[in-house]
Amino acid sequence: MLDTLRCEACSSDAVALTHEAQTALLASLADWEIVVEADIPRLRKLYTFKNFKLAWAFANRIAALAEEEFHHPTIVLEWGKVHVEWWSHSLKGLHKNDFICAAKSDQLLDE
Questions:
Q1: Contact 17, 25 (CB under 8 A)
Q2: Helix (H, G, I), strand (E, B), or coil: what is residue 3?
Q3: pTM
Q4: Which of 44, 62, 90, 95 has the highest Cβ tally under 10 A?
């Protein structure tokens, strides 16, 4: 269901999701985890592929999604692997947008 939603622009009074809200939304995602780095919670997932070219193509689809949603993750490309982290930089935490983009990232595997 999250993959059918669009990201919303974060207003100046937007706040990060509570731990309870994060946990509830995380339950709807497969194989994503919440990690804390520099005191900032982030959604993280490792995707694996048969070779570099497939991983590269997937990383490009994630980049296109980021531009379409105007919400930009960390993308790390390795041979056969793509690490993706979504979080809301301006909020220094997680927003519903991060969970929407995580769900949409998973949909890109089918392309």
A1: yes
A2: helix
A3: 0.92
A4: 95
Residues sharing a CB contact under 8 Å with residue 101, sequence separation 6 or more, in sequence order: 7, 65, 66, 69, 71, 73, 86
Provide the token pair at 20.
Answer: 């309870």
Which residue is listed with tokens 């520099």?
38
What are 40-71's pLDDT values in tens digits? 999 999 999 999 999 999 999 999 999 999 99
Tokens of 71: 């919400």
- Residue 83: helix, strand or coil by DSSP? strand
Tokens, residue 44: 């993280």
- The amino acid occupying position 92 is K
Contact predicate 95/9, CB 8 Å: no
Q: At what angle do helices 19-26 and 96-107 cross, to 10 degrees?
A: 20
Alpha-carbon gap, residue 39 to 17, rounded angstroms: 14
